[in-house]
Amino acid sequence: MRKVISFMHISLDGFVAGPNGEMDWIKVDQEIFDYVGKRISEGDTALYGRVTYQMMENYWPTAGEKLTASKHDIEHSKWYKKVHKVVLSKTMNNLSLPNTTIISDNLSHQIKEIKQQPGKDILLFGSPTATHALIQLNLIDGYWLFVNPIVLGRGIPLFVDIKDKIKLQLLPTTRQFTCGVTELNYAVDR
């Protein structure tokens, strides 16, 4: 069965965005871009909430074609165009978008159905609201966290309204990057 892996940048105190969704505190560099590029090739499906999807869709389809495109822009743009996208949205449900599935209701059933299909990991990028919904339904199989060396003090937390403990197993792929970000990989221990 395919796994849903939540990919998030997170502050040391557990926030995935500032109070107004700010992400200007996230540290990324070429070392992280190269590593993430290799790692996301392990997934053939990208899962987004509506806000994150619209942000991605406004940039990535043409990012690699610009004269000023970086190596990361070119590589990620190619990946983004070919990966199947799943968007959780109650407002986009009537749209027909290429290589994109919109889930507007029956979330648990539809995600379980996608997990049963042949393919690689399903990567949930950012999307705190979508992540919170999937956590509540016990549909996340792992957390791929990039812990940034900052304490925000307030913002949008990764974990909210947790009703039952979520037991995790640290995977041996933990890594520290030269910019101070530490990658932690956890599998949900069911």
Oligomer: single chain
Q: What's the gyration radius in Å?
A: 16 Å
Q: Main sheet, how many strands, which sense, barrel?
A: 9 strands, mixed
Relative strand content = 25-35%
Name the structural class: alpha/beta
- The chain-level mean pLDDT equals 93
Instruction: Give the name of the CATH architecture.
Output: 3-Layer(aba) Sandwich
Number of domains: 1
The CATH topology is what? Answer: Dihydrofolate Reductase, subunit A
Shape: globular
* The first-level CATH class name: Alpha Beta
- Work out the number of β strands: 11
Give the SSE layout.
Blueprint: E1 4-11, E2 15-17, H1 30-40, E3 43-49, H2 50-57, H3 60-63, H4 71-82, E4 84-88, E5 100-103, H5 107-116, E6 121-125, H6 128-136, E7 142-148, E8 156-157, E9 168-170, E10 175-176, E11 182-188
Parallel strand pairs: 1-6, 1-7, 3-4, 3-6, 4-5
Antiparallel strand pairs: 2-8, 7-11, 9-11, 10-11
Organism: Chryseosolibacter indicus
Domain Bacterial bifunctional deaminase-reductase C-terminal: 2-172
Protein name: Dihydrofolate reductase family protein
Which tags fit this structure?
Dihydrofolate reductase family protein; 190 residues; 6 helices; globular; RibDG_C; alpha/beta; Dihydrofolate Reductase, subunit A; DHFR-like_dom_sf; Riboflavin_Biosynth_HTPR; two-stranded antiparallel sheet; nine-stranded mixed beta sheet
